[in-house]
Amino acid sequence: MSDEPRTRLRGRTRARIRTSSAAGARVPGALARLALVLRTPAGAAQPLFAQAPKRWQRAMPFLVVGTFVVTLLPVTITVLSNDYGVGGGWAGALGVAQTVPLLLALTRPLHAWIVVLAADTVAAVLLIGADKVAGHSWPWPPMTIVGYLVLMACLGLREPVRTLVGVWLVTGVVGTVLGFSQPAGVMNTNALLFVLGGVMLVLTGALRGLGDAQQRVAEQESISEAERSRRTLLEERARIARELHDVVAHHMSVITVQADSAPYRVPGMSEPVREEFAAIAASARESLGEMRRLLTVLRGDGANGAGSDGADGERAPQPGIDRLQQLVEATVRAGQPVELSLAAGAAGAAPPAVDLSAYRIVQEALANVVRHAPGAPTRVSVTVDEDEVLVLVVNGPARDAVVELESSGTGHGLVGMRERVRLTGGTLDTGPLPDGGFRVAARLPLHDPTEDPS
Fold first, then answer.
1. At the N or C end, where does the chain have fewer CB atoms within 10 A?
2. How far is CA 41 from CA 47, 49, 58, in A?
3. pLDDT tens-digit readout, 165-220
4. Which H or E element spans position 376?
5. What is the pTM of this model?
6. Of 336, 449, 321, nearest to 1 (Cα)?
7. Distance (Å, rounded) from C-alpha 182 to C-alpha 176?
8. What 3-state class would DSSP assign to 135?
9. How many CA atoms lie within 13 A of 282 on its CB side?
């Protein structure tokens, strides 16, 4: 029984939990989604909302700004010429200079701000001598304030805080300087634009900053998940290396004993032959010593202060196919219905590495059944032919709807299974069944596929 579908389910659950908890701790869910759309564009000339997931969201800035431009352009020209008494030529030129650059604000708002502020300042100077300026707003007429606020929103969604503060202060300074030449009878709107502009910069800048923060959190979570997967893989490889030590050490010990006892078992050896056997025994003992030192590093004995119980467990003889019956019986005693079908002669047919891998795959599969599908009928089948060992573990759907996960287990689910199969040069096939169960099928070759059959 593999835990891959459950892993995906738990991953989605964790993602939902992270999203809901993060949103509950910081901002409501709708505002959080809006902040992600409003985050800073990745490129210098990239349009606003370019990183939004949906097409209509990416098109929204163009639609909104385009609507403001199309609306403000004729209104500005009409108000300047009719209400303020500005000449038709000047009114048309100022209307274009104050509104059309708003389209540039979608990609380069700072450049658009320079053009618009200059046009607004020129318009304020011309309005000083206008015939009908008395009784109207000055230096910023209403349509100028609306266009400037749109520009402030574009700036707040892209530029850093230092730039936004500078833009806001420059706006106030320009209005204050113009105030020294204020015509008689006008309503000064410098403070109004200064306050509204600051509010717009704060709101859009805060939303943009929130989106950037959530983006950084998502990136860090992705990095953490990748590091967690990498650490799991390395831990499983270290576990496999520790287990294979016992297999290889057994063969090296046999070589040492045979080389040492050869002069006594075969009398009449010449001195060069005795020396050759002695050299073989010495090399084997040296190899065993190196392997034990490497195993000490892998187990962390001493440096990490590993307990003696864990070390003693690692030094126990490694199990194989011949121990599957005991494994199944122990699982059945735990309340899990399991049937074992073991081919005759399978216990002694596989080499040590394949024998150990077959046992561990069945052990991990049964552990996953107990964790994620308690009470589900399970069948374990191990067959052997002249080329490979086929391990098959199939379970039905879980009887319990809610499962409390256990922390016990020998490995890391599919990660450990794949590593063991890869070690032997075999293949692993896992997947859900139509009835809600799961299947694990491993093919482990009896012979090293890299060896030359000749």
1. C
2. 7, 7, 11
3. 999 999 999 999 999 999 988 999 999 999 999 999 999 888 888 877 777 777 78
4. none
5. 0.51
6. 336
7. 10
8. coil
9. 6
